[in-house]
DNA sequence: AGCACGCCGACT
DNA sequence: GTCGGCGTGCTC
């Protein structure tokens, strides 16, 4: 039998299957979707079996070396989904498959030198022999980093046959194994065996006496500490056939030992009930349908999800819930764990690679029926999928900005289609694309326009900060906001202050000459890092000491413009010294679990003001919060992005929704320098529908999505002339082949003109109907392949660009 | 990706 | 005359 294998190299010339002979011994167990180790040239690589056939396309076959999984890691559905994904996003097959499995299953490769058979150390030159002191294998990398001039010597010894090169392949993360001791015979038989033990075998007696009643097994290390015994005691018992020791895979449960308060379904409002009915119907009928659940903040979308999932579980099926990374908070997880207990797996970036793997294994082994996770959880290997939910559907984090450049929403809908199951997109501020589709009837629109507690949405006041400045207020708090903060402080109520991080990033600036610290390799300003007192580049990792004097004019008035939040915190301390402030930003939440800790402190009333960035905009739900302040609403409005208005509207709406969710009434103050702007104006009125109409008109007149599709080609090269030349040629190539109604813009320089010493240009394609676009771009890539290989030109394609960078 | 094979300049 | 530069093409 022949296995068609796709190997672990993302390159166009190996983006196809290779045939391998399946050894007789593995024939029974080899299955499509398994990872395998295969010889590839002189190396040993990981690969995936795509299919198994009788005959091969080539004659000289190698045999596959090893099966790396007892059961396939890719289900047959995922195998075909990968195919689809690679066509849809124009990525290599291997890249699509790698995105579907936990990174712990990725292979790492190592090259080593070892002495050949029948060779003796003494035949080595002394400077090489030194390396073989106390070991038989010398890692290639070690020589490269410490004594690269010795490499040719090693190489020569290889050609001479004295040394050989060994290619090693390992899993990235070793599965945590634990030894468990089980009784190996009936209690009666063991009783006899126990009696027959020699009298001096005290430890064995004790241990066996204990183990024989533990049919569930005992962890060996526990057993040994319990009786102060050693490994040999257990081995002796094993030899006598009394017990058996089994290596068992151990789950690292990040929620181990945590109690989840069981919650029961809440009574639904009439609106919730009405929205849910068609969703449950689709679940019952196992029919694909995409729903847009448009519910204002606090309208109880989550409860609708939970009860729809309940219907899925009733049917014995499984559900995927996608949540944006940033709102995958413990609060959120608790709601799901509280309702479905141990039937839930949770996948988010806060988990270690090992923990992620363990959660994934729970899905694979059918130990859970619900997964709550960020973007990549859309690939959960369920085989009986009954529902996919995407919460906060509009969030940009659902788009992966590296290969494969997929949007989780598209993948979800495709999986829904394949599995005959409904997909629910939920949001208070749906993306224009989604809402437009709902309007057209492509998706079923369900609206929840009332909050569950019938509370009014909070009153929102917009403050013109230019006015404040004219009146001599140079602080970052308007008089109004400041007065309200004081008021809450007096009443013992809580406030949330929101600062948009962008535009406030922590660059350094010379106040004399205007010098801004920039990365020498990337056209981007350096970010100040407090912990190392260095300036670092976000893109390439370049770091330098924080200068004491301006590198350009020697002035000592060089200072960094603090992390925004830090600065606000300082000012708060000056103006409201009695206020207890909790600051949440990348600096204070980088440690594991600190995010959670800070929030629970705030929830317990240990602070009066929560000050933070994006990360506090979502999902927070604290009864005592009655004031929300947005310090600068328009910092992201001026970004070079046609979605800037939409993003501003979404953010302001989300933030406003944090106030007055319970008994106490809430109030919101938005400070802005662009008060007339419709996105700010309409967010303050909680008026999504008018915003939708206005923004749609703008999109139509500028020919942007959802009226046009948008594909972005990016080019990069160390030589600016080369990249301009290449991108012009590509634009020309496209102009010749695409229809006249399609717009091809550029090439223009990218918003970030240079990263890691490579100059960047881009070409934007706006189109309504271009059925052959994928094929044409594929041909373009083929056509320019020689240029990419020879000159080191990089071309990246984003078939559904969300960001212009 | 990594490696071997292959064709043109400065060296024992 | 050879060692070695990296351009080209292949890996089942």
Automatic annotation (TrEMBL):
GO terms for molecular function: 3'-5' DNA helicase activity; ATP binding; ATP hydrolysis activity; DNA binding; zinc ion binding. Its EC number is 5.6.2.4. CDD domains: DEXHc_priA, SF2_C_priA. It holds the Pfam family DEAD. Residues 542-699 form the Helicase C-terminal domain. InterPro entries: DEAD/DEAH_box_helicase_dom, Helicase_ATP-bd, Helicase_C-like, P-loop_NTPase, PriA, PriA_3primeBD, PriA_3primeBD_sf, PriA_C. Its cofactor is Zn(2+). Binds 2 zinc ions per subunit. Zn(2+) 1 binds at residues 510, 513, 550, 553. GO terms for cellular component: primosome complex. GO terms for biological process: DNA recombination; DNA replication initiation; DNA replication, synthesis of primer; double-strand break repair. Keywords: ATP-binding, DNA replication, DNA-binding, Helicase, Hydrolase, Isomerase, Metal-binding, Nucleotide-binding, Primosome, Zinc. Zn(2+) 2 binds at residues 519, 522, 537, 540. Residues 282-448 form the Helicase ATP-binding domain. PROSITE patterns: HELICASE_ATP_BIND_1, HELICASE_CTER. It catalyses: Couples ATP hydrolysis with the unwinding of duplex DNA by translocating in the 3'-5' direction; ATP + H2O = ADP + phosphate + H(+). Initiates the restart of stalled replication forks, which reloads the replicative helicase on sites other than the origin of replication. Recognizes and binds to abandoned replication forks and remodels them to uncover a helicase loading site. Promotes assembly of the primosome at these replication forks. Belongs to the helicase family. PriA subfamily. Component of the replication restart primosome. This is Replication restart protein PriA.
């Amino acid at each position: 039998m022949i296995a068609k294998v796709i190997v672990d190299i993302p390159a166009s010339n190996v983006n196809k299957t290779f045939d391998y002979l399946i050894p007789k011994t593995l024939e029974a167990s080899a299955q499509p979707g398994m990872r395998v180790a295969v010889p590839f040239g002189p190396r040993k690589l990981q690969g995936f079996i795509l299919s198994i056939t009788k005959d091969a396309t080539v004659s000289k076959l190698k045999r596959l070396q090893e099966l790396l999984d007892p059961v396939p890691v890719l289900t047959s559905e995922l195998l075909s989904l990968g195919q689809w994904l690679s066509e849809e996003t124009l990525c290599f097959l291997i890249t699509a498959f790698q995105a579907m499995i936990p990174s712990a299953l990725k292979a790492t490769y190592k090259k080593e030198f070892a002495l050949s058979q029948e060779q003796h150390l003494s035949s080595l030159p002394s400077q090489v022999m030194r390396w073989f002191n106390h070991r038989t294998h010398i890692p290639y990398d070690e020589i490269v980093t410490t004594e690269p001039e010795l490499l040719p010597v090693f190489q020569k010894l290889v050609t001479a046959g004295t040394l050989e090169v060994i290619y090693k392949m390992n899993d990235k993360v070793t599965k945590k194994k634990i030894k468990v001791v089980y009784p190996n015979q009936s209690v009666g038989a063991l009783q006899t065996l126990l009696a027959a033990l020699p009298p001096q075998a005290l430890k064995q007696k004790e241990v066996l006496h204990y183990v024989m009643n533990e049919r569930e097994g005992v962890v060996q290390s526990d057993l040994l500490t319990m009786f102060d015994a050693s490994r040999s005691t257990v081995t002796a018992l094993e030899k006598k056939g009394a017990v058996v020791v089994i290596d068992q895979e151990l789950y690292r449960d990040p929620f181990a030992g945590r109690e989840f308060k069981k919650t029961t379904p809440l009574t639904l409002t009439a609106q919730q009930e009405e929205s849910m009915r068609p969703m449950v119907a689709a679940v019952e009928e196992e029919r694909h349908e995409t729903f847009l659940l448009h519910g204002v903040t606090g309208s109880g979308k989550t409860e609708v999800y939970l009860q729809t999932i309940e219907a899925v579980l009733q049917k014995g099926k499984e559900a995927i819930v996608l949540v944006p990374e940033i709102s995958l908070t413990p609060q959120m997880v608790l709601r799901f764990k509280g309702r479905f207990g141990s039937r839930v797996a949770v996948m988010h970036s806060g988990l270690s690679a090992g923990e992620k793997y363990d959660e994934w294994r729970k899905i694979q082994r059918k130990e859970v029926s619900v997964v709550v996770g960020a973007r990549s959880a859309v690939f959960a290997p369920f085989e009986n999928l009954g529902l996919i939910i995407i919460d906060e559907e509009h969030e940009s984090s659902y788009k992966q900005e590296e290969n494969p450049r997929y949007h989780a929403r598209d993948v979800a809908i495709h999986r829904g289609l394949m599995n005959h199951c409904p997909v629910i997109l939920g949001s208070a501020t749906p993306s224009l694309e989604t809402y437009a589709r709902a309007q057209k009837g492509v998706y079923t629109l369900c609206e929840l326009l009332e909050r569950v507690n019938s509370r009014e949405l909070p009153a929102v006041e917009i403050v013109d900060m230019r006015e404040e400045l004219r009146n001599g207020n140079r602080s970052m708090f308007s008089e109004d906001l400041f007065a309200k903060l004081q008021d809450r402080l007096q009443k013992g109520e809580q406030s949330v202050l929101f600062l948009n991080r962008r535009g406030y990033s922590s660059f350094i600036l010379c106040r004399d000459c205007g010098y801004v610290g920039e990365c020498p390799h990337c056209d981007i300003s350096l970010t100040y890092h407090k912990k190392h007192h260095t300036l670092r580049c976000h893109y390439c990792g370049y770091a330098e000491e924080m200068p004491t004097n301006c590198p350009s004019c020697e002035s000592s008035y060089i200072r960094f413009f603090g992390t925004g939040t830090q600065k606000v915190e300082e000012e708060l301390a000056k103006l409201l010294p009695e206020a207890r402030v909790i600051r949440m930003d990348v600096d204070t939440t980088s440690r594991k679990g600190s995010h959670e800790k800070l929030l629970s402190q705030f929830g317990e009333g240990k602070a009066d003001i929560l000050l933070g960035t994006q990360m506090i905009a979502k999902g927070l739900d604290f009864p005592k919060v009655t004031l929300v302040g947005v310090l600068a609403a328009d910092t992201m409005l001026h970004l070079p992005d046609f979605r800037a208005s939409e993003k501003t509207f979404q953010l302001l709406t989300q933030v406003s929704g944090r106030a007055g969710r319970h008994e106490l009434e809430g109030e919101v103050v938005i400070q802005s320098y662009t008060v007339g702007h419709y996105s700010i104006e309409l967010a303050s009125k909680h008026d999504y529908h008018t915003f939708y109409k206005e923004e749609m008109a703008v999109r139509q007149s500028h020919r942007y999505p959802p009226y046009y599709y948008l594909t972005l080609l990016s080019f990069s090269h160390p030589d600016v002339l080369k990249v301009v030349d290449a991108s012009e040629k590509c634009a020309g190539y496209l102009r010749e082949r695409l229809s006249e109604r399609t717009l091809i813009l550029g090439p223009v320089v990218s918003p970030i003109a240079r990263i890691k010493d490579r100059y960047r240009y881009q070409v934007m394609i706006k189109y309504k109907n271009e059925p052959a676009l994928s094929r044409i771009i594929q041909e373009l890539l083929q056509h320019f392949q020689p240029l990419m290989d020879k000159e080191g030109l990089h071309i990246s394609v984003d078939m559904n660009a969300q960001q212009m960078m």
